[in-house]
Amino acid sequence: MIGYRFSHFTPQDESDKSDFERLFDIFKQLISITGGDVSEALSWMNELDKQYKITTPEYGMGDFIEDLKSKGYLQEPTPGQLTPGSKMDQAIRKSAFDEIFGKLKKGGPGNHQTSFSGLGDEQGSDRRPFIFGDGMEQIDMTESLRSAQINHGIGDFTLTEEDLTVSEKEFKTLTSTVLMIDISHSMILYGEDRITPAKKVAMALAEFITTRYPKDTLDILVFGNDAWAVKLKELPYLQVGPYHTNTVAGLELAMDLLRRQKNKNKQIFMITDGKPTCIKVGGRYYKNSFGLDTKILNKTLTLAAQCKKLQIPITTFMIASDPWLQKFVQQFTEVNSGKAYYSTLGGLGNFVFEDYQRNRKRNMR
To answer: How far is the C-alpha of 272 from the C-alpha of 364, rounded, in Å?
Structure first.
């Protein structure tokens, strides 16, 4: 890995934050960049402290480390060996969620509501007269009492079956999601760190799904030369490997994971920096990193079309601004009738959103 160079640091106004919160914001960024290497992250913090005085005379780096341990963000399985604690990965996901979705306009997806009403999950606004077979839990007592007063008067209060009003409930549906993350070598190629913003987007999406839609299913996979599933807690510490980009392997695994789910609503989120460069043919890898290889491209687009036929939309988050890399994403998304978000490394959260299903394009800030 090439490494990172810190050239300039402009602190934000954090007067309302405690010393621990200020340092913790920096530490969460560094622990993700180092792939969970606590020692390296703390070494970087010490270097930042030397240059920019991020600690205070009253609260030093030693105090910060002790607080990280006491609050459960770090653990010490053996003396002197610090590793991320059980609360660290959730804190990093929450931070990524605030960074990404905090910049997007309000009015995103709801709770997977449908247009159907009846014996559903959530109280709706529709009302109707009571009929035989309705359950007691469906009766809207406030509206029923109001009807009784209108029909019979207040002086001699009477409540009959004709006065009872039932509140319809709105159906909600579950969605199964697979989150695909590109960990090929191109994610750090030419000195550009693309894996860190990719992880931030992945963590923000995972946090969004698990907190907003807790009944949904979420599977996470990474893809390089091959594809394999990872756990949610591993997300903040993913690292790039010496891999090519086998998008086909990722899509095949994603489709296999979704095939096991009983839900009718299924979707794939793919986070990548561009074109596929590898497929597996028999027992060997067919690779070509120079331009878009027709053999690789056709196989990838075929899977995109298959997903469309199975009604599995693919939303691609493109972590790069190179026009020649975006060309593949545009073609891939068009074949799937899916959606694509484009973001530069420096403008994470300021996405350009392209919806091929509705033929729309707009900025998301």
So the answer is: 18
Of 77, 74, 67, which is closest to residue 88 (Cα–Cα)?
74
b/e string for 323-346 if b means 16 or more Cβ within 10 A?
eebbebbbbbbbbbbbbbbbbeee
Give the residue, 311 or 112, on which the prediction is more confident: 311
Tokens of 313: 């939309």
Contact status, residue 122 vs residue 172, Cβ threshold 8 Å: yes
Q: Dig out the tokens for 175 from the structure.
A: 């969605």
For the segment 231-246, the average pLDDT, to the nearest whole number, is 95
User: Above 70 in pLDDT, residue 354?
Assistant: no
